[in-house]
Write a structure and sequence with these properties.
This protein has seven helices and seven strands. It is an alpha+beta fold. It has one domain. Helix 5 crosses helix 7. This is Fungal-type protein kinase domain-containing protein.
């Protein structure tokens, strides 16, 4: 997050998605900028220049595990019968954010964390690292929906998790298109070409 452009774009996403903070992503607490000549008795003079101008975001801590831990950990951090609700929760949150005018480029399962919420008695997912989310600009509705169809947002989570769980855990999740995905497929990927 030391790169100005990434920091600014991620800050912008957080500001525009304020109502999703704490639900689909951690809460943004603030921006952090170390002074140009940060020094401490614990840092050598050489270190001062390497950390100068560091900028980043201070985020809510979420005691969690990554979505990938469901198949990577020696022992899964969640019971097998919870996989479907966890992954479907992540997919639903993608649609919540898309509905607010953002698309996530380069969707990665390691950028989704999972936490048990005892009061709700279920797992919740949160997106971290919002640097590759793009705000809708002046695209027509058709062009915006076409880009959604091309991005394959939910498949980047659902299809990937289905394949990896099958390989590493002998299954546990079957990806099914959501209604939104089915509609995009019907409109843009039909046998006879795009309908609209």
């Amino acid at each position: 997050m030391g790169d100005d452009s990434l920091d600014n774009s991620e800050s912008s996403v957080y500001r525009r998605l304020e109502e999703e903070q704490g639900k689909s992503m951690p809460r943004l607490i603030g921006r952090v900028e170390l002074p140009h000549y940060y020094s401490s008795r614990y840092c050598s003079a050489d270190t001062e220049h390497r950390i100068a101008d560091f900028k980043g975001l201070l985020m809510q801590f979420i005691d969690s595990f990554t979505l990938e831990a469901l198949f990577q950990a020696d022992i899964s951090p969640a019971p097998r019968d919870a996989y479907e609700s966890i992954i479907d929760n992540a997919i639903q949150k993608i649609h919540n954010i898309i509905a607010r005018g953002f698309l996530k480029h380069k969707g990665r399962t390691h950028k989704v964390v999972v936490r048990w919420v005892a009061i709700d008695r279920r797992y919740q997912t949160y997106f971290i690292d919002l640097t590759n989310w793009r705000l809708r600009k002046d695209e027509s509705d058709r062009d915006w929906r076409l880009e959604q169809a091309n991005m394959e947002e939910e498949g980047a989570i659902g299809q990937v998790m289905q394949g990896r769980l099958k390989k590493f855990r002998r299954g546990g999740y079957t990806y099914k298109w959501t209604e939104q995905k089915e509609q995009l497929q019907d409109d843009f990927r039909g046998e006879d070409g795009p309908r609209i």
